[in-house]
Structure formats: structure tokens, C-alpha cells
Design brief:
seven-stranded mixed sheet; binds S-adenosylmethionine; about 260 residues; single chain; alpha/beta; Rossmann fold; two-stranded antiparallel sheet; 2 domains
Amino acid sequence: MQDDTYELLKRQIGRFLDLDIDAYKQRQMRRRLDTWVEQNSSGDEHTFVMGLGTKSDLLKDLRDTLTINVTEFFRDQAQWADLETKVLPELMADTSRLKIWSAGCSSGDEPYSVAMLLDEAGRGVTSSLLATDLDPGSLHKAQAGGPARQALYFREDGGRFHVVDTVRRRVEFKPLNLLKDRFGTGYDLILCRNVTIYFDPPVKAALTRRFHEALRPGGYLFIGATEALLGSESDGFTRTSGNFYRKGEVAASRVARAA
Ligand SMILES: C[S@@+](CC[C@H](N)C(=O)[O-])C[C@H]1O[C@@H](n2cnc3c(N)ncnc32)[C@H](O)[C@@H]1O
């Protein structure tokens, strides 16, 4: 599409979907939107983009295109083994009440995976498990609790698998835009996996600092298998294993001095 049409589309997305496209990686975003406009418009692209505000089906489809919702249970198994055998036992040794947040949870496979591990960890540990996403469609699916693939913790209903209620009840789903909304504090564990890969590097760095603030000292940030905290992003964190970063008290005060 022409540059002026793209600029108009960005404004329309801001107005009708409340999404700031400039925060995302530009080349990737442009490619995705070029394809979307090409596939959905017949005739003049500028006129098509201009008229988007009144077309709720197209706006919903556009939102789905922008918020890539791919997810799966226990995505990247080796990392989940680390969570189960190292990180959770360590956190549970510190506190009997865990405060956990899955940020960018999509349709819920990630927080439900955590809920299953907590369920297996057994009695003596209570937890609050908050799961948030920008996309209302994904949250709706998540609250319905399925359908899903894993055999454990699912019940079959008419050929579809649903997460059992004991797991569902452990998770509280809420809409939250990571680029705009306020975060809670005092988290023992924050999962933000395969979300910031779509963000512009300075936006990712700012978000990482906000996660640091939201964690309690000694709390963990768990990121995706292909991700890393680069350069000063890791200030105040110690990389423990794989994609786990622990908030350290000493390094945290260094960050506070630098701010
Ligand atoms: C690829 S999914 C990752 C899901 C899950 N964390 C995982 O790793 O399986 C990315 C999710 O990030 C969400 N997302 C994108 N931008 C966001 C924002 N600004 N605030 C909150 N969530 C956002 C999308 O809606 C989508 O559900």
C-alpha cells in the first residue's frame, strides 16, 4: 500500500482498536498490514482503509492479524522442566503464597500450564495467578477453558477437550495492554513469553524495566525460548537457567541509582 494509506491505517488502528502500532517492529508490521489490506480490499486501498471504522467484522479480523495469538500448553518443554524442578521449588521454599502473572497469555495455555504445575505441587502452597492479554477474543477463549490437546487435566466433551475446573479456577483472566496499563507489584514470578518479540527494541527495554519493578526482590521473569535480555535490559537481573532471570537485590539498587 502507499505510504499515506499506511499512515491512515495506523491512525485508524489507534482510533478503533486503541493500539499504538509504532511500538511494534515496523518492518514486520508493515509487511503484515500490506498483506491484510491486499487480501481484504477490493478497489481503492485508501478508500477501503478510510471506511474501516464502520466494519466491525473487518476490525475484529484486523485485531487478530495484529495480535498474533499462537500459543500452546507447556510451550518449549525444557524451560517448563526448569520451572517445575528449579524455579517453583525455590520460590515455594521462600513463601507459601505465590503471586504469579502471565502477561500476554493469549487463549490461556500458558497460565493453565502453570496452574497444572501448582496443582501437582500440592497442599501447603496457595497462589494467585493473574493472566492478562490485550485481545478480548483470546481471553474469551481462555475463560471457556479449551479446547486443548494435552491428555492430563482435560475432560472430553463431544470430541473437544476442556481444561478441568480445578485448573480453571486457579487463574484470573483480565484485559491489560502492556504498553498502557498499570502493573501490580510484588510478583514472585512473571511470565512474558513470545510477546515482546513483536515490540520495537526501546519499547521492549522500557517494558522489561517495568517488569523489574513489578517483581519482588528474588522474583523471576520467565521469557520465551528464542528471547534474551540484551545489554542494559538485564540490569538488576541475574540469568539463572535458560530463559529465567532473577531480580537481584544488589543489582536492583544499582538500577535505582542509575534512574
Ligand atoms: C504469540 S502470543 C504468546 C502467548 C503465550 N505467552 C505463549 O508464549 O504461548 C502473543 C500475545 O501477546 C499479546 N499482545 C500483543 N501486544 C500486546 C500488548 N500491547 N499488551 C498485551 N498483550 C499483547 C497478543 O494478543 C497475543 O495473545
